[in-house]
Request: fold
Amino acid sequence: MIMSQSKKIRPTESELEILQVLWEHGPSTVRFVNDQLNEDREVGYTTTLKLMQIMAEKGLAERDTSQRTHIYSPAVTEAETQQNLLTQFVDRTFKGSAMKLVMQALGNHNASEAELDEIKALIEEIETEGRRKNK
Amino acid sequence: MIMSQSKKIRPTESELEILQVLWEHGPSTVRFVNDQLNEDREVGYTTTLKLMQIMAEKGLAERDTSQRTHIYSPAVTEAETQQNLLTQFVDRTFKGSAMKLVMQALGNHNASEAELDEIKALIEEIETEGRRKNK
DNA sequence: AGCTTTTTACGAAATACTTCGTAGACAAAG
DNA sequence: CTTTGTCTACGAAGTATTTCGTAAAAAGCT
Reply:
């Protein structure tokens, strides 16, 4: 199995906001990211710049500096980042019980019929998988 | 509907660790909580004391100061705290989609057959509830 | 060319959170 | 009574994160 990242990906809250923009829109300039963030809340341009520079240092983002205006790309995928944050969150808040988390999330959410069906399908899949592997 | 807490409950990571002890063991002294924490990692006594004092100020805990050794009790329930943290986490990490979170949590399954059955039962319940309300 | 705007770099202030040292009160033990 | 230990209070240092001001370089404009 290829491990593209040996270290744990742990973006801070602000870094995560920026990653969301990069994941959604792809490679972007600081200006663009800052504009996106400012649709939700006021953030100074240099604040965003600094954060993105730090993210590049940390390896959360990569940047193309061949032009005067640098282009930043996410260096981690959304799925792996979510997985890491989720694991950490479950450990902290639900003492490691992913099931408790699922129950709580399901219980308090207005899930549509379609969504519930989706989950049921997934459960089916997991169960089948389990039997096949004789787990 | 009675709102026991108008403000959002947002314990920090350290505060959450302490709350876990209080939820599990009920009203406790600083000494007891500190001993519990030290089973996992080294923490100074005054560190725990300070945190618990802050928690009392913030309203996360209550304390009985009638004796020299104060007794601290949780002032928030485990369920409501988990719910608040969960909502916040889903917003941040899954852009508000609880379903994505559930799918991801389930997908990384170490779920046992029994746990999956539990979830299926919960889904059944939600679906029945939904039909009853003709939602 | 001269002025304005945009961008990066740098550093430091501001904020949030965690940790601990020290002091004083009180209690327990000898 | 004196010594030793435990507890609270307080403040401040340490660390992580966020925010921004300023400067210099590059680009755009008139």
Summary: Residues 13-76 of chain A form a domain with the Arc Repressor Mutant, subunit A fold (CATH 1.10.10.10). Chain A touches chain B through 39 residues (CB under 8 Å). Chain A has a mean pLDDT of 89. Chain A has two domains: 13-76, 79-132.
